[in-house]
Design goal:
By secondary structure, this protein is α/β, with parallel strands linked by helices. It has 24 helices and 9 strands.
């Protein structure tokens, strides 16, 4: 008991040092990368809170997102609590989910009478680089993994204590989780636990419960499919069909042709020998798992006792793994639910080794497993950063990540514009994601892309290019609304400035409020022009 509680306290202390004490305003995370994922989640959450519908805004158009609204709904409590700091809501949401996973994990093992396993498990979870990175993130991966973990826990409780209601609850949670990440559908084989439930005296009653469990799951999936039907005209169509139809038409989202790339990524991760930039580099060291964790999890297979739960759990896990291997987007974050679900497997040998050592029963096996467990917790040896550096400790790098200070150039640029021209709001052309700017800029500022070079240029339903940019500007000039262009300084700034539309009788002038990081251009009427459109108001 004491050892388990001590490990739990250590896990909370590490989580605070690596995640909770991070000063988000002093990082570059407020730019909400990667694009367009984090931006669309944040924009949807704000739209739900203010208008009751999940959408993103580009120019005057309210458009559907390519992602379902489950994770944005989880942001709503934080958006409500942080009305003046809404940009922090995605991060606070994931920090809270991460804390719930730690506390809930320990509470789960404590409740089934295994406090030592609970302490060891929370320490393993808290120190895993993927968990740390996505607890700091603005993406839906951690919430999806938490939903999958809760589903497995409920099934375990149902089968261990021979109760049906946890199985129904698991079916409902899994069905609703599709609104967070549709790929969680591949965990549905876990529900064969209802069929594995012991038959009492009545086979018809057993069959009825099996059907009702399946029915509960199907009913819980209705919100996801109904949302697709309303937004995209068909239950099986998603935002990807709207924004990147080529993926769906060519059957490239899930294809066996994607397997070699996925296997190569996993191999590089397991051997700590990756070279490419990945999403985890945005929120942490770039590493998802360490080789020692893989060794510990594989060793855990020796300690598994086959029973009804392990059968259903392994069938579900293997199904999800095989399906994700065929996924078009290659990144370790899509395996995050499996990384977390492997922790109960890794706990088994660690619990056995620590129990023997506490009883002063030493052997080569106990010492070897304890060393592997400690190497897993410190995350050594591994790689960190980009370009990756070898022989790193993930625990050490995670704690030092919270001390880094970086500027969020796009966040600071929109703040500069809003402050400089708060008394003369207008329309804004920018290379920064318009959905991002339209959430953060105060009303009545309104943003749209410069031309057709943006993240939303592949849709066949909605189009925005140079002609639409010209129309956007002319509409503002007709209403005497100021027109601005916002850029973040870069080595390609001159090329970006040349992309600005040319309006007869007007010229783009650099505002005096620009600085070395932020460039603000103002569309100003040329001297001597007889245009009826008034000169936009300008400060600086």
């Amino acid at each position: 008991m004491a050892t388990g509680v001590l490990c739990f306290v250590l896990s909370l202390a590490f989580y605070y040092g690596a995640v909770l004490r991070l000063q988000l305003r002093q990082t570059d995370l407020l730019d909400l990368g990667p694009y367009p994922d984090a931006v669309e989640y944040f924009a949807q959450a704000n739209s739900i809170l203010k208008e009751g519908t999940p959408s993103i805004q580009i120019g005057y158009d309210k458009l559907p997102s390519r992602y379902p609204p489950g994770y944005p709904l989880l942001m709503i409590p934080w958006l409500s609590c942080l009305p003046h700091q809404g940009i922090l809501a995605p991060f606070r949401t994931n920090q809270t989910i991460g804390l719930f996973l730690l506390v809930g994990g320990f509470g789960f093992y404590f409740g089934i009478g295994r406090p030592l396993a609970g302490g060891l498990g929370t320490l393993l979870l808290a120190t895993q680089p993927a968990f740390v990175s996505f607890s700091r993130s603005s993406l839906s991966d951690l919430s999806g993994a938490a939903a999958a973990t809760l589903t497995f826990a409920l099934v375990y409780i149902g089968l261990r204590y021979m109760r049906r209601w946890p199985l129904y609850a698991a079916a409902i949670v899994l069905g609703l989780s599709l609104c967070i990440r549709p790929q969680l559908l591949f965990f549905a084989p876990l529900l064969i636990a209802a069929a594995l439930f012991p038959i009492a005296n009545s086979r018809p009653k057993w069959l009825l419960h099996c059907c009702l469990t399946l029915l509960a799951f199907l009913i819980a999936t209705v919100p996801y499919f109904a949302f697709n039907a309303v937004e995209f005209g068909h239950p099986l169509k998603t935002g990807y069909d709207f924004w990147v139809p080529g993926w769906a038409e060519n059957n490239r989202l899930f294809s066996v042709h994607n397997v070699p790339a996925q296997l190569a990524m996993l191999q590089s991760e397991i051997t700590a020998n990756w070279e490419e930039f990945r999403v985890a580099n945005l929120f942490g060291t770039g590493t998802y798992i360490v080789p020692a964790f893989v060794v510990l999890a594989v060793t855990g297979l020796v300690f598994v006792r086959p029973n009804r739960f392990t059968v259903s759990a392994f069938v579900a896990g293997i199904t999800y793994f095989l399906a994700t291997l065929t996924y078009a987007f290659v990144d370790g974050r899509f395996f995050l639910p499996l990384f977390i679900l492997l922790i109960p497997l890794a706990i088994l040998p660690a619990e056995w080794a620590v129990s023997n050592i506490l009883k002063l029963h030493f052997s080569f096996s106990t010492i070897a497993i304890l060393i592997v467990f400690l190497l897993t917790c410190v995350g050594y040896p591994s790689q960190s950063g980009f370009k990756p550096r070898k022989q790193r400790s993930q625990a050490w790098d995670a704690l030092h990540y919270a001390n880094r200070e970086r500027i969020s150039p796009q966040y600071e640029a929109q703040r500069k514009l809003a402050s400089a021209f708060r008394y003369a709001p207008g329309i804004v052309l920018s290379d920064t994601d318009s959905a991002y700017l339209n959430v953060l800029l105060p009303k009545p500022f309104l943003s749209a892309p410069i031309d057709d070079k943006h993240y939303y240029s592949y849709s066949r339903v909605w189009h925005y290019g140079k002609a639409e940019a010209m129309q956007f500007i002319r509409g503002a000039l007709d209403k005497a609304i100021p027109v601005y262009a916002l850029f973040v300084s870069s080595e390609h700034l001159d090329q970006d400035l040349n992309r600005l539309p040319e309006i007869q009788g007007y010229t783009w002038e650099r505002s005096k409020r620009s600085d070395r990081r932020t460039v603000i251009m103002v569309l100003t009427r040329k001297a001597g022009t007889n245009s009826l459109a008034p000169v936009p108001a300008q400060q600086g």
